[in-house]
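MODEL INPUT / OUTPUT PAIR
PAIR INDEX: 1
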Amino acid sequence: PSLHDKIRGLNSASAMSDFSAVAAVFAADGPLARAIPGYRVRPQQLEMAERIAAAIQDNRVLVTEAGTGTGKTFAYLVPALLSGGKVIVSTGTKNLQDQLFQRDLPAVREALKVSASIALLKGRANYVCHYHLERAVADGRFQSRAEAGHIRSIARFAKTSKSGDKGQLGTVPEDSAAWAAATSTRENCLGQECPQHKDCFVLAARRQALAADIVVVNHHLFFADVILRDDGLGELLPACNTVIFDEAHQLPEVAGLFFGESVGTGQLVDLARDTRLEAVAGAKDYLPLQDATRTVEKAARDLRLAVAAENARLAATQLAHDDSFQPALQLLAEELTGFCKHLESQAARSEGLGNCLQRALELAARLKRWRTLEDATQVRWVEVFSHALALNLTPLDVAEIFRKQLEGHPRAWVFTSATLAVGSDFTHYRSELGLDQASTDCGYWGSPFDYAANSLLYVPTGMPDPNSFDYPEAVMEAAYPAIVAAGGRAFVLCTSLRAMRRIHGLLQERLARDGVDFPLLLQGEGAKAELLARFRSLGNAVLVASQSFWEGVDVRGEALSLVVIDKLPFAPPDDPVLAARIEQLRKAGKNPFMDYQLPRTVISMKQGAGRLIRDESDRGVLMVCDPRLVNKPYGRKVWQSLPPMRRSREIADVVAFFAAPAQGAGKLPQ
């Protein structure tokens, strides 16, 4: 039979056992090779695709790590499209979500000549809300002329757009406050009571997703919907045959976020603002409600001001006897109770006020639970931002909760990422998500790139203890000659914002003093996408950044030739969630460092290192300044999990690497 006969025969779960069609798709003369420019046969990609096809056929759980360059996206899209069932693909970021829906899925579908329908589903905050946009335009109160202009642009976009997806309106910055006024949240959506219900972009996206064969979502949406049954996955999941998680290393943290609970001062301020708008329209004659919105908003802002820290995570016990925090928390609870009573007396006057009452009661209940809950399985903690504060309840272990999501209707679950294993061992990842070893299949494929010939792992000598006060100075001094040798073209990735700012300042002084003209960029000086675009176009820039640039960043070619990592990315031991988990593991007789902290650090290091080589023609140096990589026994576990680079401790080798093309792999130290 012809290839397309085989493919047609493969378009059912019962026929997935014929893997010859899968192999034919990835062949040198197959449909992908004919349709995709630059396509190359990769044995790892075919093996991965066949394992995924088998998991889909047998409704099994499969955990896979595929190194950079394996082509894991096509490796899961081909069997997904050929399976004939309904598939949910969940990604780590909205950018990857858009890439899958707009580029990869259509390309593979066209190559295979299959008729599977595809849909994109995002969280409701990504879609323009006609109701809230109309009220924002009518209200007309904005903090700047730019913001007012953004609202007008959104209003024009809403009249012509078929999807209402804000990602399609590039003229309004993603971080513009206008979007908050022009979109809805789970809390302030009026649902079927909304006068614009029939034109709702969110409902249109849900309908398309329900009808589609392949639905692309992201992890936050997946968990929000599975737990809250909010944006459509509550209906999608029961009908689904396969769930594929890409960038699956993010799942434990995202699951912890959504299986927990939070109440933030920002939510309360938004509630107060929305209630004021609804009260003007529906209860203008009841002034006490207007007054109550202002008092609850002030109490929320005062709670943030009661904590002197900024960008910090604090255990509830650290604030248990705080003379500023506790009175402010008590006052907020009292003001919120009074606010609820005023709202209750007016809620029947409009759908909007009724919705605000439900939000207020839910936030009051969460606040009460946070103040009174004594549960050994959860940790209470506070996260402090520049202008807001969140009270969080986080489960210490999501494994049992997540395991329940895998039960019920038989379906395949595929977890894939470039960084899930420690070495090639998936024990840590499986235990975090409760993936039973007996029923979970695992697959590991290293990168096809020639790291030994095209990269170097450099650990400088003479570095002080990473916890010493002057460590950022030592990092800059060690990294500076490597940056000069690389001609700029560097990421300097830091494990804290404090270190990032300090190293940036020191580099700025040194470059100016020496008259070295490398553009120096700093995370936070602009949006992430804007900074990356500048970095790529400049060609010799140095970007100093922290955690948000450790993953999901793709700079191919010579523009990025050096990645400097200041420290092994161990989470701060005083982090309240980590501290509680460490204590829980100790009580269970486990070794918290070896069983939990080190595996998480290895996975994070692999993510940071993965920024360097993004294409088979890329060359570069990974510089890890932390001496623990070589002088601590556990350091071996870290570097053995990294790609097989040549290794050196001499800056002369770095200079020589950049001075001439690599002449072969060289001998790897054992």
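PAIR INDEX: 2
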Amino acid sequence: MTTAVEPDAATPGAGGEPLAVELRGITKRFPGVVANRDIALSVRKGTIHAIVGENGAGKSTLMKILYGVQPPDEGTIAINGERVELKSPIDAIRAGIGMVFQHFMLADNLTVLENVVLGAEKLYGIGDAARAKILQISTDYGLAVDPDELVADLGVGDRQRIEILKVLYRGAKILILDEPTAVLVPQEVTELFAHLRELKAEGLTVIFISHKLDEVLSVADDITVIRLGTTVAAVDPREVTARQLAQLMVGSELPSPETEESTVTDEVRLTLEGIELAGHGTQRKILDGIDLVIHAGEIVGIAGVEGNGQAELVEVVMGMRRPTAGRVLLGDRDITEADVREIREAGVGYIPEDRHRHGLLLEAPLWENMILGHQTQAPNVRGPLIDARAAKADTERVVERFDVRTPSILVTAGSLSGGNQQKLIVGREMSHQPRVLLAAHPTRGVDVGAQAAIWDLIKAARRDGMGVLLISADLEELVGLSDTIRVILRGQLSGEFDPDVVTREELGAAMTGAAAAEEELR
């Protein structure tokens, strides 16, 4: 449903440009919390507009309102100068809005064409007309996709292009991208930004949500900062630094980073010897001859494009998979055949890559989630029974210490923002002071303030002698935290990289195999 906006509501941008999106007085309340409060947002047509803010600041709720997933309690939405009521994503799509979510929504067992037309068969059918439209969009916007390729065979960057193509196929002129660079290597980020600039050049509008402020500053035309559910600033990226932007987000000055002295000792905490993991059928090995040693007080970072074996490597160490060959040693103890509970009780902490699948029960309250993985350990038990009172008291302590923003420990984990869910998991694992911590993407989807806090916690644990295996797609995180960096490619580890001297480009080349290809040509 659309109606013309009154003249004073259809305000053009500061430079006189027409507005693609205008939100005024947007307010959204949930039980015990106001997620959005009188938010104002003006997005100029044909620009890349970044929205930044801390976890829990209200960004996701605002975008769900704009995409029709949730209605606002108060306020108005105008698209291209027309007042609209977006009661569902179908209404948003009809208004020319498309959204690419952080977690891709593709079926691996289908082709690119089948994924793109799924749910939109009425537009161009499922045959030649659909194929022609996909090829036309791919050519027009430089997306370079093959309609007949199986999605299961594609890398992360390719999958993201398909998600963008899906919304363009449905006629979107306004694209919402939620954390689009979270899983990309530097070369893929550069490629994505080239695509976004191409979309902008063709007159499309992009709303870009990200926690990576350097990237925001490099690609955005305008930036809106949201803090504690309301708009606090609209800034020109040419006039602010990443540090100034971060301070606008958190509302205070950030501490300056301090140089960390090496804390690596001779005490071996975790050893992987010749670890192999067979693929399915005739597939190559998922892990092929992995040798790795982590000492007390050492962080070993693993860089790699997703799908090269890093997830399986963590699952082998955690006892979730049995290696085809090789041994896993925790200190001098062989834990290769141990189950997850035994490994947990032996002192291995785990921050999972997928917090929804392996880290949380989304429908359970926070205090029950705090028990997960530690249900046999104090303070969660009294004799053979769960001690609910002690577990709740411990949850209150962790929520306060790790700044998990929630109205109560009795709300469900699913009601928290993604960043606060992550802080709950980090708090749960760190509070048990493990001997070895397996941290898979520990700051994915968290804001700059929470990221700094989690980094400080990991550094402090390293100073106290913890050994850390850090898996991350964030090269800044790997370089900033690791004592040594290894690259995993097709199930094999490369040589060691010194984080003090290696460049992002060198790591990116090693992660994509470009470095090895160049070596073969010499």
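PAIR 2 NOTE: The chain is about 35% helix and 25% strand.
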